[in-house]
Amino acid sequence: MSAITTTRPAGTSAAHAEPDTAPRGKPIGTFLGLPLYKHGTAPAYLRTKTRLAAIRLEPAPGQRPVCYVIPHYHPDEYRALYEPADAAPIIRSLGDEWAWRARRTCPRCGKLR
């Protein structure tokens, strides 16, 4: 009888069995006491505020960034990266809905475009 063995892709370890949670590189330093990564080397699952908004999330009240990244197009700036699992959903206010309907409603016939 042969023993069944599981293989792991080359370059991965048991500590980082989930590929999205593993950093793709080492931090190059710290900024405000948090790890600082170059563009493309931070863990893939972390998101900036803009990327959180794209999936209808925002940092929860009091949520602190997990690390910082240096964007390749602005090497003198740092962008905060947040944990999406801790983020809060964006809740639209009813006023936004009314304003949207007012802009999309034909003033002559009242039909919503």
Q: Which key terms come to mind for this protein?
A:
elongated, alpha+beta, 113 residues, 6 strands, 4-stranded mixed beta sheet
What distance separates the N and C termini?
69 Å
Q: For the residues shown, what is the average pLDDT?
A: 79
Biggest beta sheet attributes = 4 strands, mixed
Which value, in Å, is the CA radius of gyration? 22 Å
Please tell me about this protein's structure.
The protein has a domain of 42 residues. It is elongated and about 60 Å long. It starts with 28 loop residues before the first strand and ends in a 9-residue tail after the last helix. The protein has 113 residues and is of the alpha+beta class. Strand 1 and strand 2 form a beta hairpin. The chain is built from two helices and six strands, in the order E-E-H-E-E-E-E-H.
Compact description:
The chain is an alpha+beta fold. It has 2 helices and 6 strands.
Give the helices and strands, then pairings.
Layout: E1 29-31, E2 34-38, H1 49-54, E3 57-58, E4 67-70, E5 79-81, E6 88-89, H2 94-104
Parallel strand pairs: 2-4
Antiparallel strand pairs: 1-2, 3-6, 4-5
